[in-house]
Amino acid sequence: MKASSNKCFSSQVLPLFFTLAFTTLIHVSCWTHSPHFSSFLVSKHEDEEAPSSSSSFPLQTFASYGSHDDEKLDTNFKHKVTKKENLRDHKYSNLEKIESKLAKARYSIKEASKVQNLTYTHQYQEYVPHGSIYRNANAFHRSYLEMEKVFKIFVYEEGEPPMFHHGLSKNIYSTEGMFINEMEKGRYYRTNDPNEASVYFLPFSVVMMIEYLYVQGTYDRTSIGLCVKDYIQIISHKYPFWNQSQGHDHFMLSCHDWGPVVSAYVDNLFNNSIRVLCNANTSEGFKPEKDVPFPEMNLKTGDLTNLVVQGYPISHRTILAFFAGHLHGNIRYLLLNTWKNKDEDVQVFNELPDEESYHTKLRSSKFCLCPSGYEVASPRIVEAIFAECVPVLISDSYVPPFSDVLNWKSFSVQIDVKEIPNIKKILMGISQRQYLKMQRRVKQVQRHFVPNEPPKRFDIFHMTIHSIWLRRLNIRIRGDDH
Question: Where is the signal peptide (predicted)?
């Protein structure tokens, strides 16, 4: 059954799905136990110091790889057989084969995390992660290589454009559209065989659902939520994969503020599935151990050229801190109320004068203020990185993109909302030597946020896939006979 272009699945067929029984019970166990990355041995590169052993964002991704006995890790993935059966003659199920590959990947990443100064052996590659912008460069590099080797994504074919299999690749929701459209092209990671997939993509666009289902001015999101609920009922009836894992190995993606709200219409989608969200707000149910923070980017025309231009030299960055944006939530109100027209060093505008260029201001500033609006995400973070301006994150509950592998403290400043009156004092307290290091790291981290057509290794598309890969590594799906 497919969705039409202007309406979603009929709710009249839903009672049928609730009567279905599934005979195979699948257990989902989480490998994550430690909430910190402090067990890592971090390699140094050149004169850069190692990141702090404590983490501002308690993601559990890599720490879990070393939390289990190696032999048990491999043995637990073997199918139990009777004494009469010969293990060598036993054929693994598809699920067991997938989990066996993931177990080997976990072990490989764990071993790489123990080795310091490993990256020099990989200089034949076009880019090798190194330096303090990473929590552990060796572990990340090994994880990325393992992902390229074994990770496979199945995209459900049900549903029709424009609400499914299509997204807008311009304006504030551009990253959502670019990801959906790239998965539809199938150039990377996609498999047409659902039995060999590591994860399953639910290819709906919340932005497009709002365009076709939402009645302007009503603030009623029920129709969108029910559409998602109907879709999951359809794929759970046609395929066994949602039911066998209760959604743990499925993922959705949304850059619209309503993405988290829409996901709440299906309990297992909200609580179990991997949700890739620009609105990565922990106060609204975002769980970093299973959900993925997604970069927000404002591509007004969808043009991918000249996004990163040569930044101004430090000597020409005469503004200490800069922000321009409309009143949009309490944080920005406090920022504007405290600093607007108050100090030439901290330039804050709710609207730039016509003669001023926004991007020139970015390139002329040492620090770029990135306060949350009504929602926590802001395209200013990526804009600052592209302008080689050190981002200053001002938020209460935001989890920055790719913070499972990136050490944000090495190239950004994080200021609590209550410290907004002290912004100048905090930034002036950063020495010139430390600032130069941070600004150099901003240049290094740019490659991870740049969109390309076609995608390039380590860019925003592949980094998003890698974040999904890490969440999948954090769980193990197995049958009840184990």
Answer: none
Q: Decide the pairing of beta strands 475-479 and 413-415.
A: unpaired
What is the rounded distance in angstroms from the CA atom of residue 182 to the CA atom of residue 174? 12
CB 150 within 8 A of CB 472: no
Confidence check: pLDDT of 232 > 60: yes
pLDDT tens sequence across 155-188: 999 999 999 999 999 899 999 999 999 999 999 9
Q: How confident is the model at residue 463 (pLDDT cuts 50, 70, 90)?
A: very high
At 166, list the tokens: 């299509």
Q: Residue 246: how many CB atoms within 10 A of its CB?
A: 17
Q: What gap in Å lies between CA 94 and CA 195, rounded to an integer?
A: 6
From CA 235, how far away is CA 155, in angstroms rounded?
11
The residues facing 202 across adjacent strands are none
Residue 36 pLDDT: 31
Question: What percentage of the chain's residues is helix, strand, coil (to nearest 5)?
Answer: 40, 15, 50
CA distance readout (Å), 480 to 25, 91, 338, 410, 423: 6, 17, 59, 45, 55
Reduce the DSSP state of residue 438 to 3 states and report it: helix
Q: What is the pLDDT of residues 116-136, one digit of tens each?
A: 765 445 555 789 999 999 999
Check residue 29 and report its DSSP letter: E
Higher pLDDT, 193 or 66: 193
pLDDT of residue 305 exceeding 80: yes
Q: What's the CA gap between 152 and 80, in Å, rounded?
A: 26
Q: Are 469 and 290 in contact (CB under 8 A)?
A: no
Question: By percentage, how much of the chain surpasses pLDDT 90?
Answer: 72
Output the pTM of the full model: 0.84
Distance CA 116, CA 137 (A): 9
Average predicted confidence (pLDDT) for the chain: 83
For 256, half-sphere exposure in the C-beta direction (CA atoms, 13 angstrom radius) is 20
**Tokens describing residue 103:** 């177990």
Between the CA of residue 270 and those of 223, 234, 263, 265, what are the distances in Å?
A: 17, 18, 5, 8
What number of other Cβ atoms are within 10 A of residue 211's Cβ? Answer: 12
What are the structure tokens assigned to 105, written together?
A: 């990947």
CA dist 215 and 163 (Å) reads 15
Residue closest to 152 by CA, chosen among 189, 187, 120: 189
Return the pLDDT at 479. Answer: 60
Q: What is residue 275's three-state secondary structure?
A: strand
